[in-house]
Amino acid sequence: GENVEQHPSTLSVQEGDSAVIKCTYSDSASNYFPWYKQELGKGPQLIIDIRSNVGEKKDQRIAVTLNKTAKHFSLHITETQPEDSAVYFCAAPPNAGKSTFGDGTTLTVKP
Amino acid sequence: DTEVTQTPKHLVMGMTNKKSLKCEQHMGHRAMYWYKQKAKKPPELMFVYSYEKLSINESVPSRFSPECPNSSLLNLHLHALQPEDSALYLCASSQAGHDTDTQYFGPGTRLTVL
Lengths: 111, 114
Known about the structure:
heterodimer; A: mainly beta; six-stranded mixed β-sheet; 59% strand; B: mainly beta; seven-stranded mixed β-sheet; four-stranded antiparallel β-sheet; 0% helix; globular
């Protein structure tokens, strides 16, 4: 089955700095890569996703890049704000409905 | 409406109790999911319903019993649970359960088993 590794497990940045979280996957046939943000006491919420036919996707301060050759994809958050503090999960593409999540990254943005 | 709702938000039950968790979506999605999430861990898939039929059961103990009465509703019946079953139970839905479908998660039910 798919195996997803996510790094780092914790990340602390100063407000206004950039944050980068990286995930690697094992199945070269994978073609859909979502990122979720989970705030305390809430369910995961999709913040951005990318499909394998593009290498980068951007939505305001958030971007995701995909390197299919190296089998990794990364979440980039620019101009971080305290409200970006949360746990972020990448997910390998579902296989027959089964998603494999990375272990999560706890991002802390210090004012 | 891109919302998945779950009730109750919190549930405390004894090991001999029977309770149910409920999930509802009105996005017209035909795939619905139950996940279990322990503290500081990623969600773990338990069950998948596709077009109201159980399509995936991740070897979950029989004390958890899912039910999909219609395409908008998903229940999880709980009976004779153990303290280690205490966790956040998340419901999600997606358009049709395809590999590239986005999953939308509810806020979860925080379950404590005494």
